[in-house]
Design goal:
single chain, 280 residues, alpha/beta, Rossmann fold, 2 domains, five-stranded parallel β-sheet, three-stranded parallel β-sheet, 33% helix, 11% strand, Polysaccharide pyruvyl transferase
Amino acid sequence: MHHANHFYGHAHVLARYAGLGDGHPPRINGYVQHGWNIGDGLAPGHPYAERTPSLLWSEQTRRRAWSVGRRNVAVIGAPFAYLLAMRPDDPPAEQREGTIWYPFHGWEGQHVHGDHKKLIALIRETEPGPVTVCLYWHEYGMRTVRRLYENAGFRVICHGYRGHWWKNTDPYFLDKQLIELRRHRRVASNRLTSAIFYGIAAGCEPAVYGDPMVLANEDPTFGGTARIRRQWPELHGPAVDLPTAAAIARDELGLDHRCTPAELRELLGWANLQEEPVDD
């Protein structure tokens, strides 16, 4: 299995939905898109073995993949769509309060450069209620960055470690994220990212504002932040029309393309595996 299929526990979520239990997920026959992007579903520079299936979130991504020469592609929806199907009311609906804010983050190979102090000041000016700042594990581990948000009086959390090269993946990363999103009225970030779409699908009011910051050696192949702001202007700003955002998120997450467990097992190469019995 390509190691990116394990990111954020995606393979684990898909295995649970397919009826294969909570253990180590079987090898997936193909590349599962591991985050929302504006290209062909794979990260720029991502090594690709010819004729290996690309398992993508949305029809829009499939068309872009086709336009750059990918032919063995299938739309299955985002793994988060499968989590929503498994946990439609879990945790139960409660009084939502405040905003969960996701500052744009780096990763092992690229760091983000930006002014967190200015971003904190803007968040304070904009958000009407208590703020939870969710840092990616990379920034959460940077004491100086984490302390800036803690000293600003924000609740600071991390959903867990996404995993890398098949190691230390938190199989319940998305579960933790869903629980937090359902506790908040708003979801916000300084870039349009997967977390914003997840928040919309989980019932949050979205917002995208503030300095998008700079990712070191960011690949401009598909147009970058400038294209994102041009193509999805409706999702940018401190207040966004929720019905419009919900329709866009439905398309981008491929919520209408979610497979049945049997279909998913067939597409992922798991058709001959035995389902685990369900406890009554």
